[in-house]
Amino acid sequence: MREVAADVNPILACGVLLLVGCASAVVNTLAGGGTFLTVPVMILLGYSPLVANATNRLALTVQGVGATALYRRRGRIDLRLGLRLSLLACLGSGGGAYLATRLDEEAFNLTIACLMVVTLGVLLWLPADWFTRRPASGPPRPLLTAVGFLLAGVYGGFFGAGLGVFILLLLAATQRLDLVAGNAIKSLVVLFLSLVASVVFLWLGHVDLLAAAPLAIGNGIGGWFGARWSLSGGDVWIRRLLILVVAASVYKLLR
Questions:
Q1: Where are the domains of the chain?
Q2: pLDDT in tens for each of the 255 residues of the chain?
Q3: What 3 state SS string does the chain have?
Q4: Which of 108, 109, 114 shows the shortest CA–CA distance to 96?
Q5: What pTM value is reported for the model?
Q6: Are 99 and 255 in contact (CB under 8 A)?
Q7: How far is CA 119 from CA 10, 36, 91, 166, in A?
Q8: Which end is more exposed in the chain, N or C (fewer Cβ atoms within 10 Å of the end residue's Cβ)?
Q9: CB count, 10 Å around CB of 5?
Q10: What sign does the dihedral 226-125-156-159 (CA atoms) show?
Q11: Nearest by Cα to 161 from 57, 46, 91, 65
C-alpha cells in the first residue's frame, strides 16, 4: 500500500478497506453511491484522491462481474439493451479517465470536492422512498438516452461517485424501467465503463493493486449480502452514513 498515511498501520488499513469495500457494495446494490464511501475513506487513510479514484474503479469492475452474472443467471437483464447502453457509456469513459489524470493535484482535489458537494445536495434532496417508486409510463426517448449515457460514461470515467443513482434516474426517465430492471442494466453499464477506465488508470500507473485487492474482496462479499438487504429501513442508515463520510472528506480536501 504505497500511499497509506505513515501513522496508519498497513494491516489496519487493509482491514478497513475490506470493510469499506463490503459496505460500498451493499450501497451499490441498493441503488448506487458506494464510491462516496470508498473514495473518502481512502482519502482519510492517506491515499491521494487520484489513486483512491483509480483503485476504486478496478474494484468496481470486479463487483460488476459478479452482479451482472447474478442478474444474467436469474434472467433479469436485457442484454441487448444493456450492451447498447454500455457501448455509449464506454465511448465517454476512457476520455473521462484520461481527463482525471491530466489535472494537477490541487485542481483534481477541488473538482472532486465540488462533485461531492453537488451529489451530497442530491442525496439530501431525494425523498427517502424515491427508489421504491414506479417509473412514469411512456415511450423510450432515444436522443436523451444517447446523450445521457455518453455523459454518464464521461463522468463515470472521471470519478463516478453517485453514478448508479444517475443511471437509475436516466433509465427511469428514458426507458421507463423499474428498480429491478434498472439495477440489472446499471450493473452491466458500470461493469464496462469501469473496465475501460481501469485500463486507462492501470496503463498510466495510478492504481494501487495492494489496496485494490481487499476492496475487490469486500465488494464481492458486500454484493452477496446486499442482494438480500431489505430496502425498507436499510437505505435510511446508508444515506446517513454517506452524508457523514462525504462531509468529512470534503472538509479534508478543502482545509
A1: 10-254
A2: 555 544 567 788 889 999 999 888 877 766 667 787 888 899 888 888 889 989 998 888 888 887 788 778 877 788 899 999 999 999 999 999 999 898 887 787 777 777 767 766 766 676 655 555 555 555 667 888 899 999 999 989 998 777 877 787 788 778 877 666 777 888 899 899 999 999 999 999 999 988 999 998 998 787 667 655 543 444 555 556 556 656 665 666 666
A3: CCCCCCCCCHHHHHHHHHHHHHHHHHHHHHCCCCHHHHHHHHHHHCCCHHHHHHHHHHHHHHHHHHHHHHHHHCCCCCHHHHHHHHHHHHHHHHHHHHHHHHCCHHHHHHHHHHHHHHHHHHHHHCCCCHHHCCCCCCCCCHHHHHHHHHHHHHHHHHCCCCHHHHHHHHHHHHCCCCHHHHHHHHHHHHHHHHHHHHHHHHHCCCCCHHHHHHHHHHHHHHHHHHCCCCHHHHHHHHHHHHHHHHHHHHHHHHC
A4: 108
A5: 0.79
A6: no
A7: 31, 9, 23, 10
A8: C
A9: 12
A10: negative
A11: 57
Nine-digit cell string for 215:
476492496
Q: What is the amino acid identity at position 211?
A: A
